[in-house]
Amino acid sequence: MAKRGEFDRDEKYDFDPDEILDEETGTAEEEFDVLGDLPEDNNTEINDDLDDLLSDEFLSMLGIEPAALEEAAEPASEELFDAVPVEEADEEIAEDIPEELVAEPVAYEDDDVKEYEVKPVPAFDVEPELDEEFIKTFEEVFPPEEEEVPAQQGEVPVVDMPVEEPKREAPVRRRKKMSRERIIKEVYLPPVILGLTLILLITFIGSAIGRAIKTNKEQQEALKESQQQASSALAQEAADLIARADVLAKGYDYDAALTLLDSFSEDKSQYPGMLDAYNAYTQAKAKVKPIDDPNTIPNLSFHCLIADPARAFSDKDWGKSYNTNYVTIDEFSKILDQLYANGYVLVDFNSFIVETVGEDGKVTYSTQPIYLPEGKKPIMLTETLVNYELFTIDSDGDMEADKGGDGFASKLIVKDGKIVNEYVDADGNVLYGAYDFVPILEDFIDAHPDFCYRGARATLAVSGEDGVFGYRTMHSVKEKKGEDYYNEQVEGAKAIAQALRDRGYTIASYTYSNIGYGSISATKIDVDLDNWKKEVKPVLGDVPVMVFAKASDIGVNYDSGNGKYNVLKDAGFRYFISSGNSPYTQVNVNYVRQSRIMVTGQQMTTYPQNFASYFTVKDVLNDQRGS
Known about the structure:
37% of the residues lie in helices and 14% in strands. By secondary structure, the chain is of the alpha/beta class. The protein has a 7-stranded parallel β-barrel with strand order 4-9-13-14-15-16-18. Strands 10-11-12 form a 3-stranded antiparallel beta sheet. It has a two-stranded antiparallel sheet with strand order 1-2. The longest helix is centred in the middle third of the chain and has 71 residues, at 180-250. The protein is elongated and about 165 Å long.
């Protein structure tokens, strides 16, 4: 048997291995490469753009060192794949060959021919490169077949008889070296994809859970906010009710205050302020005393007030009259202070008179008690001549207030939601503020709400020949100032009249011409009232209260035999206020009569004792007033 090194391949197989080697690479041609490429794996669905994932930056992100990957791709030592028979191996080389790689002899049918089978490489992940010696050995064992040359026309083809080859086992194909891309695809990419999938799945589930938690939290917060808003709304409602009830309670209307608090839909015990207020009003109500006799209710009456005593008292024509019949604004303010200190509470006809309308439309009158705490007493207030007569404010006859006036307010207006006076001072400046009875009283009530019984206000009596409340609504104005001026005056008067009524003031007549009805006939009264109906009633509407001017009265008995009474009744008057030195009120089924106590400079200086129950005269008199 010839040794491997002595095997004559040319003689045995009749071919030269060098002829089948590729001239450029020195390796066997593809058609003879029995160790050709293995089938590609099944990851064909991976996009060609995967190359972008193989960058060193991306591998570093995955925790893979590119250098380690290159080292893993390198083939094992070529020596591990060159298996040789043990008996022919060089001793020195044999010592280095692992035992499991030593080839075993394989016997063929021709005992003279022996070849050796290379054992499979145990589970290597990379395929080693083939050296030239291995290629030569392989070509000796597996000689290439000669190509069949097509026969030319006219030639007899030469048919080579196949040479019987010894039967042998097919050599084991060794795995090809895995590329970097393939290693990434097969080894690293699947877990990366799985990891990313898990991350996406966890992210999705986490997002869903997060959204659910957020939604639930938002719902809880919305519910909490809604509850807080509802609680705040109830708290605000309770506070508003308490504030409104407090105004009623300060006006001694405890029933209305308690009714208002009872309208609260929630348990009052949950709102300490409301419960405290409710208990306080209940206790206060239990302490009030009824005042049943209206005959004991005084009515203090004033003319319009002097704003500038120096100008008024020094007027050569009217100074004495002003000193005798009028009160200054500082005197009136001091009187209010003393009335309040002495326990007086402002009431009006609505406080103790009840009007009942029968089935026939007829109105009848009766009384009702006034309920006040112990020590409180009712009192009425009246102001007359609240038309601001022209002679007191106009010095040049143009029907406008000027600095030549005598120091009185010129009109009532609504400014910034408040009722105030317009006033022209001695320098001709137009000022707005509390320069007469109404604004002063309003400021006092604001400061002392318990001075006012259930929203009561004073009675304001106007004559008509100079207009009402400072607005020139006489028909004669049309001729002097024109239709537009007259219309402006009428609208202004209507507006202030409504504002006064909204505040609770009672508007009364002081006759049209400021005359005493006690000294004239019923016929003349009818004429005067006719002017009232033509000029004043269109502006003020129905006015049921008559304040007799000039301290007059129409008689002792008001019955069908009293012609003056009949004229006044036919004109729509049902309340009649005359003058006296003491309180007096008569409530008849058909009418109400009352006596007012006139507060003037002369009365205060001459009969100070008449006011002792109400205020101390010497403490209120203005220093500029003469004797």
